[in-house]
Every structure is written in C-alpha cells, then in structure tokens.
Amino acid sequence: MSSPVLRRLPAVLVIDDELRSQEALRRTLEEDFEVFCASGAVEGMEILEMEQSTAGIRVILCDQRMPGTTGVQFLKEVRQRWPDIVRIILSGYTDAEDIISGVNEAGIWQYLLKPWQPEQLLLTLQRAAEVWRLQQENQRLSLDLRTAEPVLRRRVDSKQDKARKVFGLAALVRGPGSPLDPVCDLVGRIAPYDLSVMVTGESGTGKEMIARAIHYESNRADKPFITENCGAVPDTLLESELFGYKRGAFTGAVDDRIGLFQQADGGTLFLDEIGETSPAFQVKLLRALQEGEFRPLGSNKSVSVDVRVIAATNRDLEEDVRTGRFREDLYYRLATIPVHVPPLRHRPMDLPLLAVRILEQSCAALGKRVTGFSAEVLAVFAAYAWPGNVRELQNEILRMVALADGETLGMDVLSPRLRQGPAVDACQATQSWTDGLSGNLRERMEQLELRVLQAAMQRHHGNKSRAARELGLSRVGLRAKLARYGLADEGQGDQ
C-alpha cells in the first residue's frame, strides 16, 4: 500500500488538450494549488487512479471539448468512481446546451465560460477546494457520531452546546425588529417536537440554516444532520442516494451503499428543492415517510429508520398541488409546520450584522486580514435589492476579500453588478424599521432610538466606545442612553 503524501497545497487536476491553455491554467493556479495536467480523458484517468491511492485530487477543472469524449462524459465516470471530487467544466457558449443537459448526471459543481478571467477562475477553485474540505469534515463528523466509543459519549453535552452556538438559533443573525424574529420564535417552539417542517422562501435566503437551527435546537442535535439537493440529482440517482443499494443492483454497483435515510438514522434529513422532484419519485418518498421504512435498490429486505425530515423549496407548492405537479398527500405529509424565510430586501436592519459575520467567515476561509467596509460600500449595500439574497451577499463579500489589497473593503473591489444593480424601495426599507411602533410621535421616536442603539451595540459586539463613535456620542452619553432603556448591562464597558 502506498504511503499517504503530505501536501502543503490542495491538488487540482487540469484537463485540456490545448497545451497553451493548459499552461495558462497551470500558471494561474500553481501558487495556491498543486497542479496536475492532462491532455485528455485517458491521461486524466491515469493520474486519478494513481493519485487517489495516496492523498487524492480534490478538484477537477475539465475542458468540455476533448479528443474521443466530452468533459461531461468524462466527469460522469469520475462521479461514479470518486464522488467526493469537486467537478468543474470549462467551455464556450456553443457547448452550453450539451453541458446543461449533463450537469445533473455528471454532478458538475460549476460551469465556467471561456475566455476565463484569472481572478474569477482562482476564486472558483479556492471555493471548490473549500467545498471538498467541508464535505470531508462532514463525513468525519457523521462517522464520529455513529461510531464514537462510550467514553467519548460523556462529551456529548458540551459538543451539543458548542454545535448549538454555531448552528442553532444563535447563528441566525438579525437586527432589532427583524422579520426573522417571528421565524426564530417559531423555530424555537417547534424544534423539540418530531414534526415534519417545510421551509419556503426565495433562493439564497438561508433555508438550510433554518433547517440546521431546527436540528441543533432539538433532541436530535447529537445525531447526524444530512442534506440532499433534490433538484441537482436525476430521479434514478436520487433514489439510490436516499435509499441506498445492494451490490449488483445495477451496472456499476460494485459494492453495497448505505443511503442517506440510513445515514441520518436518529437525526435529521434535509431535502432541499423538494419541489423539483417528479411525481414518480414523490410516490416512493411518500411511502418511505408513511411507513418509516424502505428497501434499498436490489434488496428484498426493508430497513427501518428513525429520521426527522425537513424539506425546503423556492416554489409555490400549493399552486403545484392545484395543478397536479406535486402530490397533495406528500405536501401535507412534509408541511406539518410551514416556515417561511423572508428575502434579504425585507431585512435592511439585518444587513450590517450579516455583512460583518460573512466578512469574518470569508477572512478565515481565505486567510486574509480585512477589518471592515468603507462607508461608500455600506451605502451601496443598503441601496441594493439583493435579488440573490444572503447567498449573493456571501459571494460578493468573498470576492471582495479575495481581491482586496488593504484592510478595508472599498469601492475598488465592489462588483459592477452592485453599482448598477436594482435599488431597494426606500419606502419598503423604512417600513421595516418602523413596523410595530405605537403611541404618539415622541413615544415612537423613543422606540426607534432604542432599536438604533441595540443595532449599534450588536454591530460592535458590545464595544461601547466604538458604538458611541458611530453614533456621534460620548461614552458617557451612550451609557446614559443605555441606562435609560434598561440596556446598561450590555456590552464590554468602556472598551
């Protein structure tokens, strides 16, 4: 057996039959990755077979047009043999239809167009390597939870507390008067009960974070939390992913595979984009939910599991039920408790806190030190409508951190999309801040002042000196106002 290779950099395999393009890709990536290059599918497969027996390739960047095969066809075979490798396709506009039709079967994580930009390419590969790392970490954590020795079980309570802080309600960032407040209240109330939950909302609003919060606030927090994106996998593959299969069940099934339902036994299974599944698959899923058991493909024995199912969709499933696209019985089985996540444009008071949290995460992921945003950038953030919601905000800040030279993110690294993008309706943004105010003008102004003080203290993690500077107050003046509203004990004193 080969000894593991200790690598300083993550390994990426570049496959391109044009040597000049191959060399350009190598030069762009070689400072951040250990780059292996191949001119075609056969050579690429040889490198994979050799490297996967040691430390392993983490990311494949593959050209669509290659002699003898296409990138999509090659990546389909890679997915079958090494499903953990993150797969990226690189091609021109003319191949878009062929690639899109094969995205699900090949499990392509990203599709990049030629001519590529070095910054965009490098950032995409960095994110892909991070996805690989998180996948491995999730698998290790799931395995640890299932196979831990009794002596380690004594640490479960402390681990649960830590997990609850990272993934529970405390992880749902929001400002005073946020539309997320009633959502968090509902999550806290339903989490302890084994009821099916349907999380709805636009793409990128954080539906998976809501599902995680439900899991980690429940009695199942020490058990696995398993996710599956139903919209990214074709029906035939989705069935084997969820229910597993026995060796010989179909061509390529060389070993038994435990499905996600069985992996999540005792814990929670999160089915994202449930509205994209076909009626035929919905029948099989409904049966598994009703009976609490299923048969792996190729098996004549049923497997019983104890799983809480949380589903999510950005579709109007009630309308899909009316039109017959989604089964009514499955909808009511999944939507015992509906939870709707509001879009980011309806949460202006959350934006500054979210931006700071995402900035910290982005700096940690990229190993860079950036301390904050310029006033101009924050103004653009506040005026932008964020059609991609929190996911778009995450991508924007990650991109800005990657391109930043200084410790403050300024307009020079802001994407043109934001400078020219749709602005939030000013009346709508103001409405969110003034919702719930009551009484005469003076009383309403006091309530609004309280919200501003709370938001400033949260933004600066309780540091009174910084909050006072932002609000144009002295430390004494700020302390007096905090005391007036019963907030005197919040924060970190005179820091």
UniProtKB/TrEMBL annotation:
Classification via InterPro entries: AAA+_ATPase, AAA_lid_NorR, CheY-like_superfamily, Homeodomain-like_sf, HTH_Fis, P-loop_NTPase, Sig_transdc_resp-reg_receiver, Sigma_54_int
Annotated ranges, domain Sigma-54 factor interaction: 173-402
The protein's name: Sigma-54-dependent Fis family transcriptional regulator
Gene3D superfamilies: 1.10.8.60, 3.40.50.2300, Homeodomain-like, P-loop containing nucleotide triphosphate hydrolases
Listed CDD domains: AAA
Superkingdom of source: Bacteria
Species name: Azonexus hydrophilus
GO molecular function: ATP binding; sequence-specific DNA binding
Residues with the 4-aspartylphosphate modification: 63
Keyword Membrane applies: no
